[in-house]
Design goal:
Structural class: mainly alpha
Helix content: over 70%
Largest sheet: none
Oligomer: single chain
Number of strands: 0
Shape: extended
Low-confidence stretches: none
Order of helices and strands: HHHH
Mean pLDDT: 78
Number of helices: 4
Length: 122
């Protein structure tokens, strides 16, 4: 029998896999830190754990639900509804900051002269 030559995976494959592993590690550790943070805010042990369970249920269930709805109503209509739900939050952010993007270093420097920074607490 002849030995078959095994092809090696390209470097891009390994780069993508390592990036995915770091992304997942950050995602799952963030969920753990949310529970720890809420516990330190005084919510006890019960509410942070329940909130974490609810959030993970939504993370896994909502894509299935929204994909099913988008398949039923069509791309354009579902995109319109998504935009109409997303738009008020964006408008409130723009109204609060006074611009349509993140603050520039110049505007944040002016702002810090007018009032004291919020962190660290004094």
């Amino acid at each position: 029998m002849e030995a078959t030559a095994h092809e090696k995976f390209p470097k891009v494959f390994w780069s993508a896999n390592v990036t995915e592993l770091f992304e997942r590690a950050a995602y799952y550790s963030m969920a753990s830190f949310v529970v720890i943070y809420l516990g330190q805010l005084g919510f006890g042990a019960y509410w942070p754990s329940n909130l974490n369970g609810i959030l993970w249920t939504l993370v896994y269930f909502l894509p299935i639900l929204s994909g099913t709805i988008a398949d039923q109503v069509g791309f354009r209509r579902s995109s319109w509804w998504r935009s109409s739900c997303w738009r008020p939050g964006t408008r409130s952010w723009v109204t609060r900051s006074g611009s349509a993007g993140p603050p520039s270093p110049r505007s944040s420097a002016r702002r810090s002269r007018r009032r004291r920074p919020w962190w660290p607490p004094s």
